[in-house]
Design a protein that fits this description.
5-stranded parallel sheet, 9 strands, 240 residues, binds S-adenosylmethionine, two-stranded antiparallel ribbon, Alpha/beta knot, single chain, alpha/beta
Length: 240
């Protein structure tokens, strides 16, 4: 899978996504992270990607023609490959909310194109004509789409087979519903209900009088499993 990130700060993407499991997954060839510099698609000597908003108002708006040129360039590369599954996604606080379910859908694609806005955001025609969906990582406004794009890329990348190395980590992970669709429970909006990971402890077994639960040191795997399931359930009820 390739995750392309359209941005005016490609170096940010290189830096953050080269660490940890995602960085190792890239090195091992399980996925490609492709930061695309939007300034490579500008036509003026200042390499401007933005302009003043029609009708007036504060700030600058990212231009539709520059973003179109960058997406078209990526899609022309796609079209050389047969039957590629791709999606173009605009990061925006106004989009649908990102969650593990969306990450799972995206992880099945061959090519995910993430568009990071800056300034006052992007020309509305990008949303209207150029992307498949608009995606938010939360109900707050950040200065740019790079952090949202990296959050999405990271969550998607760790679901690609091989990236984590130890696939077992995925099975018990929060929101993963045991890695098994049959175990999913959904709320009235058909969203997957939260399913949290169990609590983990490591050495020292006692620190400042805070003890690791005895059952985890008992060696009784059935009891450990039962305890972990109970604790994970308790975590959910404590936030609902
Ligand atoms: N004027 C826009 C508004 O009020 O909706 C906010 C623009 S924001 C300063 C600049 C860029 O950051 C956006 O175009 C988007 O790409 C990104 N961004 C900010 N908050 C985000 C969020 N919660 N989720 C996804 N992207 C976000």
């Amino acid at each position: 899978m390739t995750i392309s990130i359209l941005t005016i700060f490609p170096q940010m993407i290189h830096e953050i996504l080269s660490y940890g499991p995602v960085g190792r997954g890239v090195k091992a060839g399980f996925l490609e992270i492709n930061p695309v510099d939007l300034r490579d698609f500008t036509l003026d000597k200042h390499r401007s990607v933005d302009d003043k908003p029609f009708g007036g108002g504060p700030g600058m708006v990212m231009r539709v023609d520059i973003i179109d040129a960058a997406i078209s360039n990526l899609k022309s590369q796609n079209s050389k490959l047969r039957s590629i599954a791709s999606k173009a996604v605009l990061l925006s606080p106004q989009g649908k909310m990102f969650n593990q379910q969306v990450a799972q859908e995206y992880s099945k694609l061959d090519h995910l194109i993430l568009i990071s806005g800056r300034y006052e955001g992007v020309d509305e025609r990008v949303r209207e004509h150029l992307v498949d969906e608009e995606l938010s990582i939360g109900s707050y406004v950040l200065s740019g789409g790079e952090i949202p794009a990296m959050a999405v890329a990271d969550a998607v990348a760790r679901l690609i087979p091989g990236v984590l190395g130890n696939e077992e980590s995925l099975i018990s992970e929060s929101f993963s519903a045991g890695g098994n669709k049959k175990q999913e429970t959904r709320n009235n909006d058909n969203e997957i209900k939260p399913q949290f990971d169990y609590p983990n402890y490591t050495q020292p077994a006692e620190y400042r009088g805070w003890k690791v639960p005895e059952v985890l040191r008992s060696g009784n795997h059935a009891e450990i499993q039962k305890w972990r399931e109970e604790q994970a359930r308790k975590k959910i009820t404590s936030i609902i």
